[in-house]
């Protein structure tokens, strides 16, 4: 049986400001074997790691990310909102994280955030960048935008994809197969052991999110999921 992947959600976001290099490094320190992060694009086409479409909450500027160039983005403090010790953190580029990941054997879950704001060519750029770093076999691309996942599979059949969804999808493994996806990134409450088994028989993994309570982690480990996405990789590590 393959080892369950412990994905740190936005890095070790239970301890550090989400989606910063500090959060990614902390995740590795705490035993994460995977990192989940959110990918978007600046006005001048640089791939960066941030959850919200607007910079307000985590970078203190009331503007859309898509309206700002990378050089200006890098002047913003992306950690101070969490606590003063992180005030030097900036919004990382995808390349910064790939450099870190390259030095380890970590799996990377890149969530393409292209819903509210549609980034032209996001899929192509992400794939090119992952290929440049020779990390195709360690990346899984997920998205709530399933058109994006189909496009990723078309451009890069060798890179895994995972379907993000909320609430209940009926027999989601069938849907996954129909769009060529490899995994279901399901809300934790929509994961039952018999579904995990059936998905697995059909070659589809479950990677539930966002699982922070040890009891729920235990339930999902018992159900046989392939990975768990958590803000607290140390809690999961203690159970594995
Ligand atoms: O990938 C799982 C989870 O990150 C999806 O939701 O809003 O935290 O990006 P969100
Ligand atoms: Ca995410």
Automatic annotation (TrEMBL):
| Name of the gene encoding the protein in the UniProt record | glpQ
User: Source species, please?
Assistant: Paenibacillus radicis (ex Gao et al. 2016)
Gene Ontology terms for molecular function: phosphoric diester hydrolase activity
Q: What is this protein called?
A: Glycerophosphoryl diester phosphodiesterase
What SUPFAM superfamilies has UniProt attached to this entry? PLC-like phosphodiesterases
* Domain of life of the source: Bacteria
* Ranges of residues in domain GP-PDE: 4-240
Output the GO biological process annotations, alphabetical, semicolon-separated: lipid metabolic process
Q: Which InterPro entries match?
A: GP_PDE_dom, PLC-like_Pdiesterase_TIM-brl
Pfam families per UniProt: GDPD
């Amino acid at each position: 049986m393959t080892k369950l992947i412990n994905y740190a959600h936005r890095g070790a976001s239970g301890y550090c400001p989400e989606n910063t290099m500090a959060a990614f490094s902390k995740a590795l320190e705490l035993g994460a074997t995977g990192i989940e992060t959110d990918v978007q694009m600046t006005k001048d086409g640089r791939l960066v790691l941030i959850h919200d479409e607007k910079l307000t909450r985590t970078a203190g500027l009331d503007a859309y990310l898509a309206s700002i160039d990378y050089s200006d983005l890098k002047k913003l403090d992306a950690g101070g909102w969490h606590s003063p010790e992180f005030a030097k953190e900036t919004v990382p580029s995808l390349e910064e994280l790939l450099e870190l990941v390259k030095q380890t054997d970590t799996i990377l879950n890149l969530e393409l955030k292209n819903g509210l704001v549609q980034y032209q060519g996001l899929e192509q750029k992400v794939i090119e960048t992952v290929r440049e770093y020779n990390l195709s076999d360690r990346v899984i691309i997920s998205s709530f935008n399933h058109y994006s996942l189909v496009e990723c599979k078309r451009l890069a059949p060798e890179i895994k994809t995972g379907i993000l969804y909320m609430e209940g999808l009926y027999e989601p493994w069938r849907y996954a197969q129909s769009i060529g996806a490899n995994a279901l990134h399901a809300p934790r409450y929509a994961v039952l052991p018999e579904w995990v088994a059936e998905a697995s028989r059909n070659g589809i993994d479950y990677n539930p999110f966002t699982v922070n309570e040890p009891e729920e982690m235990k339930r999902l480990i018992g159900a046989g999921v392939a990975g768990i996405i958590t803000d607290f990789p140390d809690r999961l590590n203690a159970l594995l």
